[in-house]
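queue> pop job 88
queue> type: inverse folding (structure -> sequence)
queue> payload:
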């Protein structure tokens, strides 16, 4: 004859606060990262060998190393030493190391570096020209708080 000893099963007790904190921590770790951070730091790069004709609109930065003939609208625009830009430009800031020709409306800083050349009708909030940089044509300061009307009568040189 065998005797079977049955033990009563007792559930272990856990501290509910520790368990809740652990679960909250797991939820935070598994939470997807925000994609907005990557979008706001994006840059459109137009390479040295690229030739683009048309309209380019970008919410962030554009870096031009090649040739663009047309309209550009963006937040920050950089024209590299090999960059050549002709047309209508609207931006918050513009840094020029190459060549820019046309109608340019910059709400903030227009910076022309020593190797840079800008010609045409320029409107800007502030201007910085390094020694050797060239600004040819009509230039006009406009306070960034005042809405600027577009140039209707401007013609290519």
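queue> result:
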């Amino acid at each position: 004859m065998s005797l079977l000893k049955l033990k009563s099963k007792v559930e272990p007790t856990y501290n509910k606060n520790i368990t809740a904190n652990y679960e909250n921590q797991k939820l935070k770790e598994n939470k997807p990262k925000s994609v907005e951070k990557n979008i706001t730091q994006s840059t459109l790069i137009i390479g040295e060998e690229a030739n683009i004709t048309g309209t380019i609109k970008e919410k962030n930065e554009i870096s031009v190393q090649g040739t663009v003939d047309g309209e550009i609208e963006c937040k920050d625009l950089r024209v590299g030493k090999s960059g050549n830009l002709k047309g209508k430009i609207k931006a918050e800031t513009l840094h020029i190391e190459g060549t820019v020709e046309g109608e340019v409306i910059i709400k903030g800083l227009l910076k022309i570096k020593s190797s840079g050349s800008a010609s045409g009708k320029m409107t800007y909030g502030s201007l910085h020209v390094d020694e050797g940089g060239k600004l040819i044509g009509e230039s006009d300061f406009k306070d960034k708080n005042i809405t600027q009307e577009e140039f209707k009568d401007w013609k290519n040189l």
